[in-house]
Amino acid sequence: MRLSYYQMALAALVACSAHHAGILTVVPAPGSVALLNNGPDPIFYFAIERATASLLMWVPCVNPSGPCRRVPSQSQVQLPNSAIQGYNPGALEAFLYWWHLVPNPPDGFRPDSIRMMIVRLK
């Protein structure tokens, strides 16, 4: 199969703008961010605009059956920029925190570890 110049340029653009963190791939697009979970377990996440991050104390959501934001295994979620905590139309970057939940007897669940990446917004 031969790729057209357009297809090669698009693939290079996506590869250069995507952020890879092991099983999580983040691809910024105009007005949103695609979160792709290539792993076998759900990924839970919290996104916050960079300047707002220093003003807000947050705790990770640990209820897998509750309202936690998540990307199911082997799935993709489109996160609108407007759903990023503290987002405003002039925002340039966001912090994306993500984790897996592991059992924490007898209380329920806890994050395995919290990872963070900086995402450039478009």
Tell me what you see in this structure:
The chain is mainly beta. It has a single domain, classed as Immunoglobulin-like (Sandwich), CATH 2.60.40. The chain is 14% helix and 42% strand. It has two helices and ten strands; from the N terminus they run H-E-E-E-E-H-E-E-E-E-E-E. It has helices at residues 5-17, 50-53, and strands spanning 19-21, 24-29, 32-37, 43-49, 70-71, 75-80, 93-99, 101-104, 108-111, 115-120. The strands form three sheets. A four-stranded antiparallel β-sheet has the order 1-2-3-6. A four-stranded antiparallel β-sheet has the order 5-4-7-10. Strands 8-9 form a two-stranded antiparallel sheet. A hairpin with a 2-residue loop joins strand 1 (19-21) and strand 2 (24-29). It is globular and about 45 Å long. The protein starts with a helix and ends with a strand. Mean pLDDT is 87; it is low at 1-17.
